[in-house]
């Protein structure tokens, strides 16, 4: 049985690292071992898995398919072993990804508590505002918002977030307060990652303006400086709404709260390390979003 696995873990490590040297370092083996293991695997499969040049290494089409399959096999093997152990306590390496602000301010504290309670867990948390491929990149769990499309994934709702439309008092004094969604036309809109602003009854508005950033903090700071209107999750704006540095507009047109999901690859056996963390997120995240807003200094320092 061991022969069937020969080279698979080495191949997956090389594909993730993007080089034999990086993979050897993380795998704890020599570069020669990694190279020979992958070569033997290619010979056994009868397919070239990598395009190799003196300067670059990239997956072939066959390599991309086998990487996805191999990553899943390794994860399912490890999860099956964990599920069959005498102890149901979470253990092993947990890789998680989420957006920067959500991760730094809300998910991070939950993960720290989780790691302290379960000393046999090792956690890697990668913050990325882009949607990554969990299966291809070997993640156990992601925190995502909004509509989900990948049928290979399971999603559990762990919280929700409210959206608000805001501007500085100075901007509103100079340019007027929009009273209807249609009034937003002609206003300077500060745009984030979403191409459409959402409102009640499913209405939408496509913002236009001179400022766009894939960082909520950058959008928020532009609003604080009077550059225009923006729509953001309430936890960004809450401390500034309390101090009066921002004012909410169109409050009667607020959309329904946006779901926040814990997303993970569809498993044959859900490992304790994932199931336990998902339950913790369900128990703690909403309270943090609702009651522990980001301090104003954290957002504007």
Automatic annotation (TrEMBL):
InterPro entries per record: LysR-type_TF_proteobact-type, LysR_HTH_N, LysR_subst-bd, WH-like_DNA-bd_sf, WH_DNA-bd_sf
Q: To which species is this protein native?
A: Novosphingobium mangrovi
Specify the HTH lysR-type domain's residue ranges.
Answer: 11-60
The protein, known as? LysR family transcriptional regulator
Keywords from UniProt, A to Z, are: DNA-binding, Transcription, Transcription regulation
The entry sums up its family as follows: Belongs to the LysR transcriptional regulatory family.
């Amino acid at each position: 049985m061991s022969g069937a696995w020969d080279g698979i873990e080495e191949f997956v490590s090389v594909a993730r690292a993007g080089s034999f040297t990086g993979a050897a370092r993380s795998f704890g083996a020599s570069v020669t071992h990694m190279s020979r293991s992958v070569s033997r695997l290619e010979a056994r499969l009868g397919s070239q898995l990598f395009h190799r040049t003196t300067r670059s290494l990239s997956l072939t089409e066959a390599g991309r398919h086998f990487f996805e399959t191999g990553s899943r096999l390794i994860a399912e093997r490890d999860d099956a072993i964990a599920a069959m152990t005498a102890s149901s306590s979470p253990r092993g390496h947990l890789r998680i990804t989420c957006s920067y602000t959500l991760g730094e301010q809300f998910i991070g504290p939950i993960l720290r508590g989780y790691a302290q309670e379960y000393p046999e867990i090792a956690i890697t948390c990668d913050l990325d505002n882009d949607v990554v491929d969990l299966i291809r990149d070997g993640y156990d769990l992601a925190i995502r918002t909004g509509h989900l499309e990948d049928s290979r994934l399971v999603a559990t709702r762990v919280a929700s977030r409210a959206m608000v439309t805001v501007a500085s008092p100075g901007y509103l004094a100079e340019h007027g307060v929009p009273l209807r969604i249609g009034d937003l036309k002609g206003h300077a809109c500060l745009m984030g990652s979403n191409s459409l602003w959402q409102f009640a009854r499913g209405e939408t508005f496509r913002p236009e303006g001179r400022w766009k950033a894939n960082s909520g903090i950058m959008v928020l700071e532009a609003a604080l400086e009077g550059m225009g209107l923006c729509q953001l999750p309430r936890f960004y704006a809450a401390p500034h709404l309390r101090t009066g540095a921002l004012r909410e507009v169109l409050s009667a047109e607020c959309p329904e709260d946006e779901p926040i999901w814990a997303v993970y690859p569809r498993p044959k056996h859900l490992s304790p390390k994932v199931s336990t963390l998902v339950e913790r997120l369900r128990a703690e995240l909403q309270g943090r979003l609702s009651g522990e807003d980001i301090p104003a200094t954290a957002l504007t320092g």
